[in-house]
Amino acid sequence: MKERDDAPRRETSPRPASHGLCPDCAHARKIVSAKGSLFWKCELARADPRFPRYPPQPRMVCSGFER
After folding, report:
1. pLDDT tens digits in sequence order for the chain, 67 residues long
2. Where are the domains of the chain?
3. Which of 4, 38, 40, 54 is the most buried (most CB within 10 A)?
4. Prediction pTM value
């Protein structure tokens, strides 16, 4: 099926929204397990119990997010 020329175009971003905030957060650390699984560790969890150590992904809203 061919896309129509007058069809609206979607904006593209370097990272799909499904990856959430953690990959771009200054407080997140990427952890890769021995089996190759990827996790994001929140360093804010060390001092503040409001933040989970390994937040469920994708995390779309977070009060601690900083670039």
Report:
1. 554 555 444 444 455 556 899 999 999 999 999 999 999 999 999 999 999 999 999 999 999 999 9
2. 19-67
3. 40
4. 0.69
